[in-house]
Amino acid sequence: MNTVWKGFISFGLVTIPVKLHSATEDKGIKLRQIHDKCKKPIKQEKVCPICNEDVDSKSLVKRYEYATDRFVVITDAELEGLKSDIEEKSVEIVEFVKLKEIDPVYFDKLITWLQIATVQKRTHC
C-alpha cells in the first residue's frame, strides 16, 4: 500500500500522526504491445520530433505546460521541496458532517487513515 500523504490529525489539544493510503487498487489488465511478425515486445524509444535524434535520459528535463507550448522547467530539488511541504502539513478536524451532506463527486477514490505513532499533546502558549 503506497502512502499518499503523511501528516497529523488534530482534535483540539490532541495531535495524532497518520499516513493516508489509497483504500482501493486499480486491478486493471495491463497489456503490452508486441510486433505482430516476431511476437516480441517492442521498445519505446525517446526521439526529439524537431531534431529527429534519439534522446538519452541525461538530456531530459521536467517541464510543466501551463499553456499551449508554454513551459516552465521544474528541477528535482523543487519537486523534493514540494514533497516535503506536503508531508509536513496537518489536518485539523473542526467538526463532523453527515454523509448525506457530502456531494458524491468527492467520492472518486476511497482512502484510509492509519495511525503511525502514539498520541501527542500539543500545547499553546
Automatic annotation (TrEMBL):
<protein>
    <submittedName>
        <fullName>Ku protein</fullName>
    </submittedName>
</protein>
<keyword id="KW-0238">DNA-binding</keyword>
<dbReference type="InterPro" id="IPR016194">
    <property type="entry name" value="SPOC-like_C_dom_sf"/>
</dbReference>
<feature type="domain" description="Ku">
    <location>
        <begin position="10"/>
        <end position="109"/>
    </location>
</feature>
<dbReference type="InterPro" id="IPR006164">
    <property type="entry name" value="DNA_bd_Ku70/Ku80"/>
</dbReference>
<dbReference type="Pfam" id="PF02735">
    <property type="entry name" value="Ku"/>
</dbReference>
<dbReference type="InterPro" id="IPR009187">
    <property type="entry name" value="Prok_Ku"/>
</dbReference>
